[in-house]
Structures are given as C-alpha cells and as structure tokens.
Amino acid sequence: MRLRNKIILYAIVPLMLALFAIAVTVYCRATLLGQLQRASIERSYKDSKDAELRNYIALAEQSIAHLYDSGRSDADTINEAKRILANLNYGPDGYFFLFNLQGEVLMHPRQPELIGRNLWDLKDANGNPAIQKLVTRARQGGGFEDYMWKKPSSHNNVSERKRAYVVVLKNWDWVLGTGVYLDDVDDVLAKIDAQVSLNIFNTMLWIGAIATLSLTAIVWGLMLNIRRRDEADTKLGVAEMKLRGLAQGIINAQEEERSRIARELHDGVKPMLVVIKMKIEIGLAKLQGMTRQLVASQIIFKEATELAKDTLEELDRIIHDIIPIDLERLGLVEALARLVLNMRCDSTRIKLSAAEEAGELAIAARTVLFRVAQTALHNVVRHASARNVTMCLERDTHCVRLTIRDDGRGFDVNRIHDDSNRGFGLRNMELRLEAVGGRFSIMSSSGGTTVLATIPLG
What we know:
Elements: H1 3-63, H2 65-68, H3 75-86, E1 96-100, E2 105-107, H4 130-139, E3 143-150, E4 159-169, E5 174-181, H5 183-287, H6 295-322, H7 325-330, H8 332-343, E6 349-354, H9 363-384, E7 388-395, E8 399-406, H10 413-418, H11 424-435, E9 439-445, E10 448-456
Helix pairs in contact: 1-5, 5-6, 5-11, 8-9, 9-11
C-alpha cells in the first residue's frame, strides 16, 4: 500500500469518524436539552393555567353560593344560577359551562345552540369522548382534562387544544367547568422548537465548518509532507541508483583488474617459471653423466625443480582465485563444487547442496554469488574453527538464494560492522550484492554463523 493511501486509511479516516461521532453526540445532546427545555416550559405554562382555572372555578362557586347553599332547587333558583354563571366571562374565550351527569348541556354562553342536547357520545377531533371524560373526571372529585374544542373567537371552525377544570355540584347534579385554550402555549412551544432546531442547525454548521477547515489543513499539511517525502524519496532513489552504479563500476573495475592481473600472471610470470623449470630439468639431464662431484649440484637442481613446480601450482591457485575460469566454462554449481573441493581440509568438512543451475542469472550476478561463497568459506577456514560447513544454493520463481552455515565459534556482527579496521570481507560481500540488486544478511552466535545472499530473478 502506498504511503498516501496509508495516511488516508490510518489518519484521515479515523479523524473523520471521530468528528462524525462528536457531531452526532452534540446533535443528540442538543436535541435532548431542547426537549427538556420544551417540557419544562410546557409544564410551567400548564401549572400557571391550572392555577388560573382553579381560581376561576372557585370564583364561579362563590358567585352562586347564596343560591346553592339555600337548599332550594326550584326553577327560579336554578335559572338564576345559570344566568349568573353565563354572565361570568374572562377574556374573549373564557366562559363557564354546565352539564348534567348524563351529558346533557344545561348552559353554554358561547354556543347556545347546544343547550338541551345530549353530547355523551360526542367525540372530539382526536376521536376522544370529550364529554364522557369531563363527567367522569367530575364524578371522581374534580380535575383537569385535555380535549379538542372549537374556539369561539376563531372564524375557521377549527378545533383547538383545550384544558378544562370540572367539579360536581351534587345538590343539583351539575358538572360545572371552565377551560382555557392552549393554542398560545402551542405557539410558544412551536417557537421554542423552531429556535432549538435553528440552534442545532447552526451548531452543526459550525462543527461542519470547523471539521472541514481542520481536515483541509491536516490533509494539506500531510499532502505537502508527502510531496516533500516523495521528492526526497525520488532524490534518494536517484542517489541510490548512482551509488549502485558507482558500486557496480567499482566491482567491474575490480573484476577487470583481477582479470588483468590473472592474465599477466598466466601469460607472463607463469611461462617464465615454466621455462625456468624446463631449463633446470635439462641441466639435470646433462649432469647425470658427470662425475660424483656434481651430485650435490644435482640435488640442488632437483630441489629447485620441485620448488618451481610448487610455485606453478600455487600460481595456478592464485589465478583461479583471482578470476573463476570455471564459472563461465562450467557454470555456478560446478564452480562452487570445485571451490568446496579446493577449500576442504582435515579439520573442516564442507558440504555443497545445489538443487539446479541458476542459469537465468547474468554472469555478473553469478560472479557475485561465487565471490560471496569464496569470501565466506575463507572466513570460516581462517577464523571460525568450525568442523562442519553447509553451503546451499536454492532457487524459486522469484530469486536465487545462497546460504552458508557453519558450527564455529561465531562473532559479534555489530562490533565487526562498527570497526573500520575489520570486517572488510563482510562489507565487500554486502556491497557486491547491492550492486546487482541483491540482499545480504548475516547472523552469528556462539553456536555458529549463517550467511544469506539473495538475488532476485528477472
């Protein structure tokens, strides 16, 4: 995954989720506070209305108390009481009404057409039996009831929410009641709801604006850093390519110099030694027929011949180490096998395991693997005191791996890396592999050392 996508996934997305969660929390809390405020205001209005209605009923009862307490129930007394109650008005929609316990309208100053009608089965705009509820509430000792009723001052014949307070006048089987319309309360509550909604909307706008600005600033900063990082990575990649090219040039120069030295030794010094050896052998042949005084000279010439022979063998070994002639002629596996054969000694057993030839590798990559094996085996023989060494050449669809393990005494890898006077062979192996796009790793402990060289295919 690219760095830009990682930043979006692991930084910006969680931030957006956090801001969304904050916005939802603020919205829920603001809505809840608005509902609590609405309920509190509605309760305050209702409490004030309830107290007002109680006072009105108390006033109505006092106004007819002299008639009601007289014990009379004749028609004149009843009509006088109705007349007094009908004339008690407060405001354009404040009046008193009378029902009997069967739901018949006895007095209604604002709707006289209802007088004498039985409204027991009447239902309001919400489908509630309003008169039944009022009578039932009165029978229970009096109280408040909410229902829908036409407002006298309204000209559109629309029912409004009304809150009534009713009591029973038992001597006359009357239900006395009065009520106030709650449209003013509903208007206040509607304004409160609108104000709360506007406040929530403005709060969400502020949160959205702050979140947008914050995200824009963060994204801009991240993108700027990413752009700078990309530019730095590009420059670093160019520098790495130049360094790799320089390293490859150095290695190529080393290989060319090795080849030149090998050719000089092979074509110059070696023929001279061969001629010297042949002349010594000819001289020995001529001395065989001479006197005994020359026996000592023969011995010296024989020793010189043997020394020349040993020198030639050592020279061949040096030439082979400088430039692996077998690598191009026989392949990497055979070159490694001959390297193992030449490096094997009584104290150290070396075993080679190679599944197949790494033929897809360029000659430069094969030379690097051979040099890594050569350097690693030289280090094992000289420094590790190992009894067993395994060298494994493996290949899969992606890369070729060369692994060299020994059971020697090991060493401190970090200390060798930090010491500029030591570890030249390790740094040279690492440099060679980097020059061909490979990877070098080494692990070492008291139980042995493992060297791993990996070169990708293709």
